[in-house]
Amino acid sequence: MQGTAGSLARSLERKALILTVVLGCQVLAAMFFALDVAGDIAEAGLGWHLSIELGATLALAAGVVVGAIHVRSLIERARQDQALLAAARGAMGALIRARFAEWHLTAAEADVALFAIKGLDVAEIAGLRGSAQGTVRAQLTRIYAKAGTTSQTGLIALFMDELIDPATALEGRGDHG
């Protein structure tokens, strides 16, 4: 979740920056052509050729306006995505803390459970915690028992169920793993 939404927001920001630079170039071009057409009309009057140039200049100016609206929309969408991501991170963190408290996990068990939810295997968790793999396995067994599941997949599923649809989360319906 974090990587996808965060990268989406960053991608939108990059696109908005690129479009802003292009838009700036279009503004300069539109100003140049507008001044050029105005000067030509002042010298020679409005003829067929200058009418076409004037139309092209007005089309460029309209493109600049549409581009500006699009850039503004992209920037707003990026901001909304970042706000939603922050809210989702906070909600997920609150959900995890609430379940860990409900299951009465010790601090060490909570640490191991969080690594397990993130998808790390026993060896990786042991390495990060500076513990023996047997210790981590024993902690995971206690965590699974307290959570009412028998596996890492089941533990992850407990949280996924609530994220997907809290109303249909599998509460007290047996093992998830």
UniProtKB/TrEMBL annotation:
The keyword DNA-binding applies. The keyword Flavoprotein does not apply. The chain crosses the membrane at residues 16-35, 47-69. One of its GO terms (molecular function) is DNA binding. Residues 102-159 form the HTH luxR-type domain. Gene3D superfamilies: Winged helix-like DNA-binding domain superfamily/Winged helix DNA-binding domain. Keywords: DNA-binding, Membrane, Transmembrane, Transmembrane helix. This is DNA-binding CsgD family transcriptional regulator. It comes from Novosphingobium capsulatum.
